[in-house]
Automatic annotation (TrEMBL):
<dbReference type="InterPro" id="IPR011099">
    <property type="entry name" value="Glyco_hydro_67_C"/>
</dbReference>
<feature type="domain" description="Glycosyl hydrolase family 67 catalytic">
    <location>
        <begin position="110"/>
        <end position="393"/>
    </location>
</feature>
<dbReference type="Pfam" id="PF07477">
    <property type="entry name" value="Glyco_hydro_67C"/>
</dbReference>
<dbReference type="GO" id="GO:0005576">
    <property type="term" value="C:extracellular region"/>
</dbReference>
<dbReference type="InterPro" id="IPR037054">
    <property type="entry name" value="A-glucoronidase_C_sf"/>
</dbReference>
<dbReference type="GO" id="GO:0045493">
    <property type="term" value="P:xylan catabolic process"/>
</dbReference>
<dbReference type="GO" id="GO:0046559">
    <property type="term" value="F:alpha-glucuronidase activity"/>
</dbReference>
<dbReference type="InterPro" id="IPR017853">
    <property type="entry name" value="GH"/>
</dbReference>
<dbReference type="InterPro" id="IPR011100">
    <property type="entry name" value="Glyco_hydro_67_cat"/>
</dbReference>
<protein>
    <submittedName>
        <fullName>Xylan alpha-(1-&gt;2)-glucuronosidase</fullName>
    </submittedName>
</protein>
<dbReference type="GO" id="GO:0033939">
    <property type="term" value="F:xylan alpha-1,2-glucuronosidase activity"/>
</dbReference>
<dbReference type="Pfam" id="PF07488">
    <property type="entry name" value="Glyco_hydro_67M"/>
</dbReference>
<feature type="domain" description="Glycosyl hydrolase family 67 C-terminal">
    <location>
        <begin position="415"/>
        <end position="634"/>
    </location>
</feature>
Length: 637
């Protein structure tokens, strides 16, 4: 049986024997009716007035996905804008539990801050020779694709749709942004597969999106060019989009990775990213679709000897000058940091630099650089910190929303590590409301999944797990130091002399990347005031980002009062010890399913092993480089 994640039958038990009225129609309203019925509730007409009711759900009270929730005279009312709002209101009732049917409470207004709350799957249709069925997937095979074919288990897709819709997700992209093999043809003769998935997402208010290749007119259409200004190319895309909408009328749109890590794009034709994005935006516009055009563009073939090229600068250099040139339905999708989903990065300056462009911020729920779902690492606090930036959280209002790479696969627990379900849940909730407290989100998830008795141990294990991961991996924002290729585990110099642009520049005297305007790559100049100066100067640069922005000697004293080298030793000993503490805490938990307990225990063993390896490789590396002993005389190899 598939693990019910945060919607086991017990999570809906307070609906049993309740009488509900549902005033709304269509597939999403039908989902709400089915939910109530399968939880043991009764959906009544409410016409006679003699039949007392407990729950009244209706849509058409305003526009959009919002809803209000109220308890009055012993009836709980959900008054929603549209059918999606109805569904979200229903799941709010689920989250409230018995309290939704207790004492009266005045109307509460709920509305999503982010307009589009999207999960991108990096699922390949074929099994990719290097990346497998899911690129950076740590949860087994794909939910959607099985060695070139559409999955036989579409019911599991429905279950997934239900889970993510309950958190507020309303868009999903079903294939990898690196488009290869049969995935090209999802746009044409394999469109039925996409339609079959869309049929499963639709009842949960989720629109289906597709990653497409910029070279599709050549590969699929037999044209000699994919030049965005070529009239035949424009016609080809317009026809392709029309065919998609004829088959899937509520299709969401395209996702495109262009001129990035070998994917084709407009540069080849001497065009820029606005030309490329607008080509697809124009094809989608008559049908109400959007293109998500990724800003993850950099030179992945740089010469490590070339100190003037800085990967951190690339997205801004390519995109910021294009602000104002993108169509309204062209969404520029920007990774949260300037490099690549590291444990700690400053916010991407692109997000702060394009006020006249619809932007979406991209996160990684899949833990490529945060333990690959072998380490317990609750990312709610990281995302919450990021969303504390007004411009990031505010993107919804004038921009487009939040996107994340999903961490789900064919695994029985959905997410590989059972506790990584919390990340999927938290992403949806933060996309709905970026101001939610990640600790409170963890309570919600725990209550639904296990019941409140697990709140305390799970807080003990997860609350600081992201910081623990940061402590035992690359220090002070310098990033990477991972094994090249698969990116799991330490390899301090693994990327140092490669073309990938992810360097730490450690030598016998110091470490870090000088990105200042004064003496470095000038990256700090991509930020507006006050950040361009905050990051530029050693006395104002936050400790946790010091080595992202500066190259400093090992005896540089941090704001914390410690030297850089002592900070490295201390945090690595502490981080690995924290992993051991997390494991010990889990062993005190007695009240969960034995299989789940054993699975998490085994993963925590691996986390402790891996954290110890990180600690020892990093500490040894820097001890050998610097020759500075640990002030506390601990064992360094
Ligand atoms: O983080 C990197 C990954 C690639 C990924 C790329 C991207 C889909 O290592 O596997 O490719 O980012 O975001 O496009």
């Amino acid at each position: 049986m598939v693990n019910p994640a945060w919607l086991p039958p017990e999570a809906l038990r307070h609906l049993a024997s309740r009488r509900a009225v549902v005033r709304s129609s269509g597939p999403v309203a039908q989902t709400v009716v089915d939910e109530i019925t399968s939880a043991g509730g009764r959906v009544v007409s409410g016409e006679t007035g003699t039949d007392p009711i407990d729950l009244h759900l209706g849509s058409g009270y305003g526009v959009g996905e919002q809803f209000s929730l109220q308890r009055r005279d012993g009836v709980t009312y959900v008054r929603a804008g549209d059918a999606n709002g109805l569904l979200y209101g229903f799941f709010e009732v689920v989250r409230r539990g018995e309290a939704a049917f207790g004492a009266d409470f005045p109307p509460e207004e709920h509305r999503p801050v982010m307009r589009r709350r999207m999960l991108d799957h990096w699922d390949n249709v074929d099994v990719h020779p290097v990346m497998g069925q899911v690129e950076r997937g740590y949860s087994g095979g794909s939910l959607f694709w099985d060695a070139g074919r559409l999955t036989d288990d579409l019911d599991r897709v429905s279950t997934y749709a239900r889970l993510i819709a309950s958190t507020g997700i309303n868009a999903v992209s079903v294939n990898n942004v690196n488009v290869s093999g049969a995935a090209f043809r999802l746009l044409t003769d394999r469109l039925d597969d996409v339609a079959a998935l869309a049929d499963r997402f639709r009842p949960y208010g989720i629109r289906t999106h597709l990653s497409v290749s910029f070279a599709a007119p050549i590969v699929l259409g037999g044209l000699s060019t994919a030049d965005p200004l070529d009239p035949d190319v424009r016609t080809w895309w317009a026809d392709a989009a029309a065919r998609v909408y004829a088959r899937i009328p509520d299709f969401g749109g395209f996702v495109v990775k262009a001129d990035s890590e070998g994917q084709p794009g407009p540069f080849r034709y001497g065009r820029d990213h606005a030309d490329g994005a607008n080509l697809l935006a124009d094809a989608l516009a008559p049908h109400g679709g959007v293109v998500h055009w990724r800003a993850f563009v950099y030179n992945h073939r740089q010469d490590w000897r070339d100190r003037s090229t800085d990967r951190a600068r690339a997205a801004y250099d390519h995109f910021a000058p294009l602000d104002g040139r993108f169509r309204d339905n062209a969404v520029v999708q920007v990774k949260y940091g300037p490099i690549d989903f590291q444990t700690r990065e400053p916010v991407s300056p692109v997000i702060l630099a394009m006020p006249d462009t619809a932007l979406a911020v991209e996160l990684q729920v899949t833990q490529e650089y945060t333990g690959q779902q072998k380490h317990a690492c609750y990312l709610g606090p990281q995302w919450s910190e990021l969303l504390g930036w007004d411009r990031v959280a505010g993107i919804a209002a004038d921009g487009d929303g939040l996107v994340a790479v999903s961490n789900v696969g064919a695994d029985g627990y959905w997410t590989g590590h059972p506790l990584a379900q919390a990340n999927l849940y938290a992403f949806g909730r933060l996309a709905w409301n970026p101001r939610l407290d990640p600790a409170a989100i963890l309570d919600e998830w725990t209550d639904l999944t296990f019941g409140p008795h697990l709140r305390e141990p799970l807080h003990d294990i997860l609350d600081h797990s992201w910081r623990a991961y940061e402590s035992y991996t690359a220090p002070l924002g310098v990033g990477f130091m991972v094994r090249p290729g698969h990116h799991y585990g330490p390899d301090v110099d693994g990327y140092e002399y490669t073309p990938w642009g992810t360097y730490h520049f450690a030598d016998r005297d110091g470490v870090g990347v000088d990105r200042t305007r004064a003496t470095g790559t000038g990256f700090t100049g991509q930020y507006p005031e006050p950040w361009r100066d905050v990051y530029e100067h050693l006395d104002t640069c936050p400790d946790e980002l010091l080595l992202f922005f500066h190259h400093v000697p090992y005896d540089h004293v941090l704001h914390s009062g410690r030297t850089v080298i002592q900070h490295i030793y201390d945090t690595h000993f502490a981080g690995a010890a924290e992993a051991e503490r997390m494991r010990a805490r889990w062993h005190e938990v007695r009240t969960v399913d034995p299989d789940l307990h054993a699975k998490v225990a085994a993963l925590l063993d691996e986390q402790v092993r891996s954290a110890t390896e990180w600690r020892d490789q990093i500490n040894t590396y820097f001890f050998r480089k610097s020759g500075v002993p640990d002030a506390h005389g601990r064992r360094i190899h």
